[in-house]
Each structure stands twice: as C-alpha cells, then as structure tokens.
Structure to design on (442 residues):
C-alpha cells in the first residue's frame, strides 16, 4: 500500500506534541524500590517455572506412557517455554536497554549488580542470566542499536515485509505460503534470529572476518538464515567466487560455536535418565532408553513452543497493513521519531501481571519505542498517558489482540497485504529541529 509522501500535512503542532510526551514521562516518575522488587519477582518466577518444568518432564518420562505422565510432560514443557521467554522478553530485554541502570545508581543495594546493561548476561554470566539461541551482545547490536533507531526503514533488520520478500515472489499457491509461516513460527530463533543477530554483531566489529571479508554478492542488510549457510557456498562456487564460497563455512562455524551452549541446554533433560541408565542406577519402571528419548523430544517441543510464543508477541509488533514504513531516516527523540514510534508499532492488551507476563511485556510496544530505558512497571503507568496524548493530537495509536496482530503480520509476510509506504510522517518544514534532552528517553 502506498501513502502520500507525508502523513501529517497541516494542523499538527510538533512542539506541543513533544511537550506533552515529556510531561507524560515526567508524570510517571523515576524507578524506585518497587521496580526492583518487581524485577526480582519476575526473575524468581522464571527460575521457579524452569525448575518445576524440568522436574515435571523428568517425572513424566520416568513412567510408562499414560495420561498423568503425559500431562506432567505437557505442563513441564509449558513452564520451561514460559521461563525461557520471560528471560528474554521481560528480564533480558529491559535490563539490556538500561531500564534499571539509573535505579542502581539512585538506590544502591536494591538490586544485585548484574542487573545492569553491559553486565547482565555478558561473558560467563550468559549461562546464568540469559542463555538462548541469540548471543546477548549480538541481540544488543541488532535490537538496541539498529531496530530501535531505524524503525521500519530498510536499515531495520526486523522489517518483516522486507525480510519475507523472497516468499512474496515465489510461484507457490497461497496456502503453501501460509503453511510455511507455521514452520518459521516454531523455529524462528534458531533458523533466522540467531544467525541474523550474529551477522549484525560481526559486521559491527571492524576487525572481524565478516566486516573485512563480507562477500560483495551479498547485501549486508539482507537477512541471514540457517538455510543460507547451505545455499550461499553453492551459489558462490557456481559463480567461481572461491573466496566467498570459503567465507560461508567459516562464518557458519563461528555461529555454531555461539549456539552450542543452547543446543546443550535443549538436550539437558535427556541427561539424567541417560547417565543413571548407563551407570545402572535408573530406578523407574520405564526403560531409561525410552525415558531419554522422551525427555529429549519433550525438551525440543518446549523450545519450539517458546519459539512460537515469542514469535506471536514479537514478530507482529511492527508489521501490518495499517502500519507505516519509511524511505528516510530521522533524528532520535524528535517529533518525527516519536510519531514513527506510534505509526509503526502496535500494542496489545495491557494492565495486569498475568496479561503482561503472557505477552512478555511487549504489549507496551509504542511506549517502549518512545522511551526504551524504562522498567516494566513504568510502562504500565505510562501507557494510558501516551494513549491520551496521541488521542489529543490526532496521532494513530493501535492497541489490538496479539493473535489478531499476528494474522495481520502473516498477511504482510506472504504478500497478501502491504505496509503503508511513505517518506516520513511530517514534512521537513513541520519537523522541529530541536532534539529533546535525556529526560525524553536517554
């Protein structure tokens, strides 16, 4: 869908809009000890969910196949999946944006020191704080530095419509394209997000192999998937680009070393029955070989469920026929930048711990893009204020169910719908030259 060059042409006061947004944030106030307690509650939930989930899986696979052991495995898989999702979308996400950094300075001792940007999940702490398919440092480059500041531009690595351009053009029946989205939904962290975030990390390092020897036949902004590691070397060989053909296996090995710990974590539930069985100490009725196989299967299914959960609450945040994409960039924290946060983001239902945890606290997407360095509780307070400001100034504000937004995103991914393309929200003459100070978003 193509819009006019600029969305808001007259009657909009960017300075008044900025002033109201600043007032909304100031009304929320600074993070305090309640925010620290809330974070630790979420951390404990994630830990308890994971521990209970693994115990239920072990209890379920230790018994012959029946209803109760099957239910234990199913509940265990859901708990492990939820814990994995929480560590990324709620804990890692908000800590990684620096949401608790000022709280750590103003209220020393209220949080363990690791809950700070640059410390959380770095080095060995990755195995303690947040172990997933993505390297935390790679996610920081891709998400915090690129996605947030180039939202819905071609430089945005998370631009769904652009990333699925190949699927749009494939001569396949529509039903096949929709079915293919189910595959991506259940595998996307390992098949797309992990290799693509690793690519962005390596390209950001001037001395890395990727930065120095990136193949000229491959655009740096193109998404990199697991399947590209197999396809690209063959294409390079056919074009007699031998150095490029050699680059891809080396780059694959570098990425594989990054995800090996996560492969081990997924295989972990199979270790107890395998070790106990091999040493003759397996005490249960079910054979240890069967228990090992079932534990591995349930753990893989739990990871696939975590993929699907995170896909539904993440991939559709900025995609749909009612959202905009841009051919230009803009200054951070200008009126244009705040407007793009609203015109290219969608919120879900909000307001309670149950709803917010299920949505991974990504249901405050508009507010989060406007002010990335706030705590989950602050976003809950800020959301109705931002919504009111948008209504006052006639600015688009979308808040809909996550499953409905996922359907709208899928339609864009397969090419049945398209985002609205424009140059910018405001004409240059309407854009204020003033860049707001740190109180507008750090």
């Amino acid at each position: 869908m193509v819009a006019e060059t600029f969305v808001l042409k007259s009657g909009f006061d960017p300075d008044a809009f900025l002033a109201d947004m600043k007032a909304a944030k100031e009304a929320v106030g600074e993070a305090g000890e309640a925010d620290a307690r809330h974070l630790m509650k979420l951390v404990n939930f994630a830990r308890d969910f994971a521990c209970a989930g693994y115990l239920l899986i072990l209890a379920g696979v230790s018994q012959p196949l029946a209803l109760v052991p099957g239910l234990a495995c199913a509940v265990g898989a859901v708990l492990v999946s939820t814990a994995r999702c929480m560590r990324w979308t709620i804990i890692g996400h908000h800590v990684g944006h620096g949401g608790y950094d000022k709280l750590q300075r103003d209220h020393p001792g209220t949080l363990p020191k690791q809950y700070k940007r640059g410390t959380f999940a770095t080095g060995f702490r990755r195995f303690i704080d947040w172990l997933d398919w993505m390297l935390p440092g790679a996610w920081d480059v891709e998400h915090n530095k690129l996605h947030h500041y180039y939202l819905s531009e071609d430089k945005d690595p998370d631009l769904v419509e652009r990333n699925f351009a190949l699927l749009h053009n494939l001569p396949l029946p529509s039903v096949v394209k929709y079915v293919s989205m189910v595959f991506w939904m259940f595998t996307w962290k390992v098949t797309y997000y992990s290799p693509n975030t690793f690519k962005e990390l390596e390209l950001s390092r001037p001395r890395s192999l990727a930065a120095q020897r990136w193949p000229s036949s491959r655009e740096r902004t193109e998404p990199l998937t697991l399947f590209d590691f197999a396809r690209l070397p063959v294409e390079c060989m056919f074009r007699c680009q031998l150095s490029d053909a050699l680059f891809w296996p080396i780059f694959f090995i570098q990425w594989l070393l990054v995800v090996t710990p996560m492969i081990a974590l997924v295989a972990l539930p199979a270790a107890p029955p395998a070790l106990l069985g091999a040493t003759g100490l397996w005490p249960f009725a079910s054979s240890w070989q069967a228990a090992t196989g079932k534990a591995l299967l349930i753990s893989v299914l739990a990871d696939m469920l975590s993929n699907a959960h995170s896909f539904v609450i993440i991939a559709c945040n900025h995609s749909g026929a009612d959202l905009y994409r841009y051919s230009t960039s803009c200054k951070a924290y200008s009126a244009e930048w705040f407007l793009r946060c609203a015109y290219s983001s969608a919120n879900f239902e909000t307001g309670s711990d149950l709803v917010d945890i299920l949505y991974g606290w990504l249901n405050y997407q508009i507010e989060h893009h406007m002010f990335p360095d706030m705590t989950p509780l602050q976003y809950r307070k800020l959301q109705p204020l931002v919504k009111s400001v948008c209504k006052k100034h006639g600015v688009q504000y979308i808040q809909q169910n996550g499953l409905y937004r996922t359907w709208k995103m899928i339609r864009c991914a397969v090419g049945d719908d398209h985002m609205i393309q424009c140059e910018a929200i405001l004409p240059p003459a309407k854009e204020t030259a003033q860049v707001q100070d740190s109180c507008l978003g750090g």
Summary: The radius of gyration is 23 Å. Strands lie at 324-326, 420-422. Confidence is low (pLDDT under 50) at residues 432-442. Residues 1-29+316-428 form one domain.
